[in-house]
Amino acid sequence: MTSAVPPVGVGLLTLGVTEGATWGWLTAKTLLVPAAGLVGLALALFRSTTHPVPAIETRLFRNRGFAATNVVSLLYGMAQYRWLLVGVLYITDLWHYSETEAGLAMIPGAVFASVAALAMGKIAPRIGGPRGVTLLGLVAILACGFLMVFGLTSHAAFLALWLPAGSIVGIGMGATTMGTSSAAAFSAPPTKFAVGSGVNTTSRQFGGALGIAALAVIMQNSGTADGGHTLDSYRNVYIFCTVAVALALAVGFIRLKPTPPAAPAAAPRRAFRTEDGPHSGEPPAGARAGTIIPVGHAVGHATPAPSTKNRKTPDQLGS
């Protein structure tokens, strides 16, 4: 039963935000519905602190790095999901793209996001680990946000605006998603790796739900009298996205900690035998050639040096 409370709370909260303009922001329904959602989330969090198998692993948030990572993910999710939706609405409404053309126009961003996520896994150790990757991705999204805010056009400009913007934001989203997921995993105990990743994904999706609700409010309040939308309607959404990313960048820069580089692997120890008996470590100059054995073998079971005691000479063998 407890596991059903968080999604219900999120649903009530987003419902209140989305329908606030329709119901009236000061009406009882608008005030009570999101309030009920917040109460439900608070009860779920409180119950999770005492339940043996909690729906929300609240103990992970005692780690400041994990808590900061999830705040960044929440703010990033508020921009990410809204960005993806408003882009399709913008080019189908003002640029008069068909749904098929809009889908094809979104492909470059998706490709760049996939490539960036794979590439960042290789270069992350050289730029501060997940923190560096996350900040790099957020900077790219922020730059693209300014490009969209000041560069929106009411006519189609695929090569001049959409393709470069989609490429930049794709790189940013791929890097940020990879960076926040890795940061959450590194911050959680080894036994809570899967739980930490799941909580981080939930934080991003929770931010996405709030972001979509805010998009509906912005579009509704900035539309025309006949229900249409102007260039400023979409610009306001991109402004909101840019502000959310800027806040995520500030939290990440201040609170996320760089991951130290992995320590080099220790040189394997070797077992060897000298005239004095078995030893381990680096063989001295007097170690008998051909008697070095792997570490995995017990030194006590090493083949002993052949004894010369009672050894017969060739003349004795022939007699």
How would you characterize this protein structure?
With 319 residues, this protein is an all-alpha fold. It has three domains: 1-56, no CATH class; 61-255, Growth Hormone, Chain: A (Up-down Bundle); 268-304. 64% of the residues lie in helices and 3% in strands. It is built from ten helices and two strands; from the N terminus they run H-H-H-H-H-H-H-H-H-E-E-H. It has helices spanning 5-23, 28-48, 64-93, 99-105, 107-123, 130-151, 158-187, 193-221, 231-255, 314-318; strands at residues 271-274, 277-280. Strands 1-2 form a two-stranded antiparallel sheet. A hairpin with a 2-residue loop joins strand 1 and strand 2. The longest helix is centred in the N-terminal third of the chain and has 30 residues, at 64-93.
Q: Could you give the topology of this structure?
A:
Layout (H helix, E strand, L loop, with lengths): L4 H19 L4 H21 L15 H30 L5 H7 L1 H17 L6 H22 L6 H30 L5 H29 L9 H25 L15 E4 L2 E4 L33 H5 L1
Antiparallel strand pairs: 1-2
Helix pairs in contact: 1-2, 1-8, 3-7, 3-8, 3-9, 5-7, 6-7, 6-9, 7-8, 8-9
What's the gist of this structure?
This protein is an all-alpha fold and 319 residues long. The protein is built from ten helices and two strands.
Give the ordered list of helices and strands.
HHHHHHHHHEEH
The share of residues in helices is: 55-70%
> Strand sequence of the main sheet, in spatial order?
1-2
Q: Pairing-aware structural class of the strands and helices?
A: mainly alpha
- Compute the separation of the termini in Å: 94 Å
The H-level CATH homologous superfamily of the largest domain, spelled out, is MFS general substrate transporter like domains
Please compute the radius of gyration using only Cα atoms: 31 Å
Mean pLDDT level: 82
Query: Do you know the CATH topology of the largest domain?
Result: Growth Hormone, Chain: A
What are the low-pLDDT stretches, counting only 5+ consecutive residues below 50? 292-303
InterPro entries: MFS, MFS_trans_sf
Transmembrane segments: 30-46, 67-91, 103-121, 133-153, 159-186, 206-225, 237-256
Protein name: Putative truncated major facilitator superfamily transporter
Keywords: Antibiotic resistance, Membrane, Transmembrane, Transmembrane helix
